[in-house]
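step: validate -> pass
step: tokenize input -> pass
step: predict -> running
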Amino acid sequence: MSKTEKPLYKRILLKLSGEALLGKEAYGIDPDVISDIADQIREVHELGVEIALVIGGGNIFRGVSGASRGMDRATADYMGMLATVMNGLALQQAMEKHGIPTRVLSAIDMKEVAEPYIRRRAIRHLEKGRIIIFAAGTGLPFFTTDTTAALRAVEIGAEIIMKATKVDGVYDCDPEKNPRATKFERISFSEVLQKNLKVMDATAISLARDQSMKIVVFNMKNRGNIKKVILGKPVGTLVEGFGHVE
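step: predict -> pass
step: emit ->
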């Protein structure tokens, strides 16, 4: 690590959507994409940053989508949780191919493939320089992986939640539909809730606000952005505090 590359954060939680693993595929996991994600995480890990991850399961199954088609919501959510375990195992494999010890901790007991989630164990893994992947959501239906990310970040004492998306920050409306959409460089939790901005779900935002957990929303598709955020460079949108900063 060069003298100019001093990380701004010691411990972070990176939230990835399941769709981020699709690449050019219509379904499942693109091996090239997951390898590239693992390589970007390796670059940050080499800076001495302790990294935890939460991955969605939307590339395999979305609980809300299943429920909207007539499936019982609880059953659909459990299926979505199992999808996150599959993604977690795939990313673990990719990480270890890059020489980084990685552990998958599942909120649903499946000891043959993953360790059970125990907060103190998770923190110990981080202290030992291992990447940890939180799988199976909270272990309960009706909670999203956004809420899981906020909850686990608070539990392990992360300094920031890094929410990787397909756009370069938070806008006042959908930039893919409105070319005049305005991007926020910084915004408060309260404004996110009042304006109903699609940063994370309301439960996750409320938890982060109550625990003063900062969130940065950035574009995962721009390679190197994870490292830029860690180094404190102006990337994406920072969500924090209770008052808007102009």
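step: describe -> The first strand starts at residue 11 and ends at 16.
step: cleanup -> pass
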